[in-house]
Design brief:
This protein is mainly α. It has helices at residues 5-19, 38-56, 64-82, 87-90, 99-112, 120-136, 153-163, 173-209, 226-232, 252-259; strands spanning 24-26, 32-34, 93-97, 147-151. The protein has ten helices and four strands; from the N terminus they run αββαααβααβαααα. α2 runs antiparallel to α3 (64-82), α5 runs antiparallel to α6 (120-136) and α8 crosses α9 (226-232). The relative contact order is 0.13.
Length: 265
């Protein structure tokens, strides 16, 4: 296999996923449900835009105080969105249910899943939560009625861990219901993956940008790097004037010190 082909394939897949994001799911009754609310969507996309604008507005020639403030601001944005207690892990992603999928999941939680001393309390909480949300949404008038239940991706992950242990024998009605349930969960999970990918790439762009603020004789900036283009735009064909760093002449006094430096890891 050609070196780097896995990384290239992964990047290509990410591009396909990102370019084909769907935030809406249509139920059997024709009702269109949004996985992420417009408000949350605006907050996430606004945070990304703000971080890029901050990085774009600060260069190697900016005052040190401005650089430090920019660094802190972008760090705070990343922590607010993708930190351990950040928005992305705790916001609600809506999962679509019809009557059969709702009853199927609730039955699994109550009678099929196996619990340990570490998971029994979560099972009780999950059963109560699903049942209460079903009642809160008004229940199901017909088999085609669709409702959504908002769950954090941490809770979704825990549910999937339980579902992974479930099996169905044959292509029965329950098997199809099981498949539909997994499809609906997967649909919402892809929306989460979309935003997670965006902010992972933003973090990588931040790591690319940070060293460009330091004046160094050895500093070079790859204007073809995808993170450079992410910050400064796809049509950036040359280094911004503010980013050009003129190398200082190396004197005989420091030549030996430079040659003896160990490569950084």
């Amino acid at each position: 296999m050609v070196k780097g082909s896995k990384e290239a394939a992964r990047e290509e897949l990410s591009t396909v996923v990102l370019s084909n994001l769907r935030n809406e799911f249509t139920g059997k009754d024709g009702v269109v449900h949004k996985v992420v609310s417009d408000e949350a969507k605006e907050m996430l996309e606004g945070a990304q835009k703000d971080a890029l604008e901050i990085m774009r507005g600060v260069t190697v020639n900016s005052d040190e105080e401005i650089k430090n403030d920019a660094y802190k601001s972008v760090t705070n944005i990343l922590d607010k969105i993708v930190g351990r207690e950040g928005m992305l892990n705790n916001m609600k992603f809506e999962i679509v249910f019809h009557r059969d999928e709702f009853k199927f999941l609730l039955n699994l939680i109550r009678t099929k899943f196996e619990y340990t001393v570490d998971t029994i309390h979560y099972g009780v909480e999950l059963a109560n939560f699903v049942e209460e949300m079903g009642q809160k949404k008004g229940g199901f008038l017909t088999d085609d009625t669709s409702i959504t239940i908002g769950m954090s991706m941490i809770d979704v992950h825990n549910v999937v861990q339980l579902l992974n242990k479930h099996t169905e024998r044959g292509l029965t009605r329950d098997a199809y219901t099981f498949a539909n349930l997994l499809t609906h969960i997967g649909f919402s999970s892809r929306v989460y993956a979309y935003y997670k990918n965006i902010f992972e790439e933003l973090r990588n762009a931040f790591m690319f940008w940070t060293p460009t603020l330091e004046k160094s004789a050895n500093m070079t900036i790859d204007t073809n790097d995808k993170y450079y283009k992410m910050i400064y735009g796809e049509n950036s064909n040359s280094v911004k004037p503010e980013l050009v760093i003129e190398p200082e002449p190396v004197t005989d006094d420091v030549t030996e010190a430079i040659s003896s430096d160990e490569p950084s890891i």
